Amino acid sequence: MLAKIKTKFVCQQCGSEASKWLGRCPGCGEWNTMVEEVAVKKAEITLTGMPASKPKPISMVDTSAMPRLLTGVGEFDRVLGGGIVPGALLLIGGDPGIGKSTLLLQVATGIAEKYGSVIYISGEESAAQIKIRAERLGKISNNLLIFTENNLETIIVEALQHKPALVIIDSIQTMYSPDIPSAPGSVGQVRESTGKLMRFAKESGIPTAIIGHVTKDGNIAGPRLLEHMVDVVLYFEGERSYAFRVLRAIKNRFGSTNESGIFSMEQHGLAEVTNPSGLLLAERPQGAPGSVVLVYMEGVRPLLIEIQALVSTTCFGMPRRMAAGFDYNRLLLLMAVLEKRVGIMLANQDAYVNAVGGFKIVEPAADLPVVLAIASSFRGTAVDPSTVVMGEVGLTGEVRMIGRVEARIAEAAALGFKRFVIPAGNLSSLKLARTTGLKLIGAASVSEAMEAVFV
Ligand code: TYD
Ligand code: MG
Questions:
Q1: Mutation choice for ligand 1 from 73, 91, 95, 102, CB with most ligand atoms inside 8 A
Q2: Is the pLDDT of residue 219 over 80?
Q3: Cα(210) to centroid(ligand 2), Å
Q4: Which ligand is nearest to the CA of 131?
Q5: Tell me: the pLDDT tens digits for 71-109?
Q6: What is the pLDDT of residues 379-410, one digit of tens each?
Q7: What is the pTM (predicted TM-score) of this model?
Q8: Which residues surround ligand 2, an ion (CB under 5 A)?
Q9: What average pLDDT does the segment 340-356 reach?
C-alpha cells in the first residue's frame, strides 16, 4: 500500500508555495500560475533501481555506445539528425487528427522489425483500434506490443520488464501519476508524468517518444515547460484538408533544428514525399493573371510554392481582404506599399491571397511574390510562367536581401525555371555562374521588379 504523498502548489512565475490551490499567487500577484507538485520527492531512490551516476572526467565519458536507431521512416530519421538516440526523450506535438498516432505507429513498426520489441502505450484508443490502423498501414509486427494503460507507474514497471527498443506514449494528456491527485491532463499531472518518463528514459537508456496535444494557443500541453524537460521537440503540422504534412524540429539536443520532413497522408498511412516542389506545382495554371511562384525555405529545404491573388472591384461598403497561408496583417501592409509607392489604387478592391498547398508561409521572401501576384491580378496581366520571384519588401517599396538564394535558385532550376527576379543586393553577392543559362534579374524596388515581370 502506497503512503499518501503530500503535494504542494507552486507558482510557476516566482516559486511561491502554498498548501492549497490559489487563483492568485500571494507572492507575485500573477493569476493562474499555481501548479500542483509532489512535496516530498522520494529522494535517492532511482526509478529503475539502477545505481545513480557519479561525477567523472569528461575524457572518460563513453560516447561509442550511442548508435542511433533508424526507424525506417526516412523523413523522421532525417529530422532527428540521423535516427533516435538511446535514452532520448522525444515530444511530438500537433493538432488533433493531423496524424501523430499514424506517424508513431509507422515508426514503431519500423523499429520493431529491426531492433526488437516496441511498447506502444495508448491512453486514448483501444488495442483493437490500433490494430485496425496497423492493418491499414499494411504491416503487422509481432514485436509491437500494445498496452492500454494510463497509470505511469504500471507503465514503467512493464517497460522495465520487457526492456523494449522504444516506448511510445500516446498521449501524455491521458497519463497520470498516482502521486498527484489532480486529473490527467492538468498541468501538474502532465509535468510530473513527463518528469517520470525523463528519469525512466535516462536511467534505462530506452528511448521514449511522447505524443502531446496542442492547445488552442498552439503550445504543447499548455505551458512551454514541457519543452524544457525533453531532449527533442517535434511539431507535426499541416492543413487537415490537404494531404501535406510537415514534421519540424523545434528543439533537438542531438542535431540541428533546420531539417524538416515532408509527408503526404495517403490511404495507407504517411508517405514520404521525395519531390514536394514538383507535386506542389502540378496543378499550376500557366499564363493566368495573379499566379506567381516563389522558392520558400522550409528550414534548410527549398520548396517551390505558388502564390495566387485575386483582386476584384468591391460591390458595396468596405473592401474585403483575405489571406490563406500568409499573414493577414502583412498582406495589408504590402497592399499599402503598392498603393503608396507604386500607385496601384486598391482602396475599392477586394483582395484574396492564397499560398497553394496548405503551407503557412512566414518568410519575408514571400513579400515580393505576394505584391506581384496582387499587381498581376489587378492589371489582368500574367507573369511569365518560367519566372520565379522572391524578396522582402520594405515600407518604402525597396526590395531587401534574403538568405540562401543559391539553394533556392538551384531547386527552381531543377524544375525548369529559367528567369529569377531577386533582390538587387543578393545579385551582386551571388557567385552563381552566368553560364548556366539562367537569367537573374536584380530588383532594388517593387517598381523595378514590376518592370522585370510585366514586359
Ligand atoms: P491520427 O494518426 O489518428 O491523428 P492524431 O493521432 O494526430 O490525432 O490520424 C488522423 C487522420 O489521418 C484520420 O482522420 C484519418 C487519416 N488517415 C489517413 O488518411 N490514412 C491512413 O492510413 C490513416 C491511418 C489515417
Ligand atoms: Mg492520436
A1: 102
A2: no
A3: 11
A4: 1
A5: 999 999 999 999 999 999 999 998 888 999 999 999 999
A6: 999 999 999 999 999 999 999 999 999 999 98
A7: 0.80
A8: 101
A9: 94
Distance 53 CA to ligand 1 centre (A): 41
pLDDT at residue 47 is higher than 90: no
Ligand lying nearest the CA atom of residue 94 = 1
The closest residue, in CA terms, to atom 13 on ligand 1 is 97
Output the pLDDT for position 350.
Answer: 96
Provide the mean pLDDT of the chain: 88
pLDDT score recorded for residue 56: 86
Cα 222 from Cα 38, distance rounded (Å): 19
Q: What is the number of the ligand 1 atom nearest to the C-alpha of 124?
A: 6
| Torsion angle in degrees (nearest 10) through CA of 374, 379, 384, 388 | -20
**Ligand 1 atom 14: the closest Cα is on which residue?**
97
Out of 265, 266, 270, give the residue to mutate to test ligand 1, the one with the largest number of ligand atoms within 8 Å of its CB.
Answer: 265
207 pLDDT above the threshold of 90: yes
| Pocket, ligand 1, Cβ cutoff 6 A | 94, 96-102, 133, 136, 265, 267-269
